[in-house]
Hints:
Number of helices: 14
Structural class: alpha+beta
Amino acid sequence: MGSEWKESTVGSLCKNVTSGGTPQSSNESYYTDGTIPWLNTKEVNFQRIYRTEKNITQEGLDNSAAKWIPENSVIVAMYGATAGKVATNEIPLTTNQACCNLIIDDEKADHRFVYYYLSANTNTLLELANGAAQQNLNAGTIKNFPIPQPPLPEQKAIAHILGTLDDKIELNRRMNATLEGMAQALFKSWFVDFDPVIDNALAAGNPIPDELAPRAEVRKKALSNATTQQGSVDHPTLSDPKSLFPAAFEFTDEMGWIPEGWEAATIADLCSVVTDGSHHSPKSVEKESGLPMASSKDLTDLGIDYESCRYISKEDFSGLEKNGCSPQIGDVLIAKDGARCGETCCIHVDEDAVVLLSSVAILRPKSQDLSTFLNTLMSQSETVADLRENYVSGSAIPRIILRDFKRFPVLTFPPLVLEIWGQHAQAIHQRAVEARNEGKLLSRLRDTLLPKLISGELQIGDSETLAEEMTA
């Protein structure tokens, strides 16, 4: 089948090939309250674009080389670390000048077929890049890049098979975001806003501290209108969750007003181990002959991204593993430096073998319930902001100072509260892990089918049946 396909070039399948532009960053009016999606090259990473990290204003668009790119285009990063990476946009957007935007002629090609073909041939494309310090592509190179041109119905069939897998992967990602939001909402209600304690204090006629008065007014209105929601104060499997909480507050020097009977503690009090990974960085080896070593950039919400890890020799790995640089189930990992400083992930399941660099802090809580509690606490946006403001040194490369971080204040409370919280959060995290594992399986299947389908090596019918079975 593939041998019968017409040979073409990427540019010949396009209505237009264009780049973008960057509005002057010093002019706030180009960005403040902007509603026009603006894509930075670092966001191009073999995915569909549904949203962008930044928006620009119409004034920013009018005063720069940025221009509207219609949805269903194919975007190729041309410069720097992301050179050769590809994305396709599900929304109209604008881009910076380092993006090569391929506006596909839908009478000649399916944009998804072009996207998948370039995704599978990134390394070949990069071989044509120039630049000694970093690989750079240009629009001419991309336009002239050879690509097969199957009949349009075959392109659409191939794109449908691979797109079905990507649809399911995206659905799992969104479900995980929803599940994480549920856990975060309940945590904030119980342990940050103290909603159950406020409700109990209001019912008992006990005084509310001034700093908690605004939240008390919110709770009064919600209770009077019967609009309190399941999952905020009420627990779906506990008939009277408020009975676990006190009905008054007391003041502490460490944390201000806290629920009566609760105590201020530190991260170190709740953990048997607070350390970091290796301060020695062994030489990298080929992935096929080595084992993964993760740094702060490799942490994700649900675990370690093994695809982005670098690999070291088995001998170096073994030495670091013996030195305690490997995470265990229940460990909470925190990025200590760089752009992701303060971000967290938790080891929920027995991960593949990996060792950690010193850019990752390792918290080993004293129990599984504490692990779930600390993971959610450290994932709160308020906690991350606090960490970055008060426990980080360095302006060029921000870095958490571990000896100071051990004194990070946390609350302790009755074991039953922790147990009930842990049961609820663990159920949510387990569902998220299952969705993540399914996503990994689907990603591997997609990556296996991708080169075979776009080369014509694999029959469409067989692949379609397999994809349908996997996503059923």
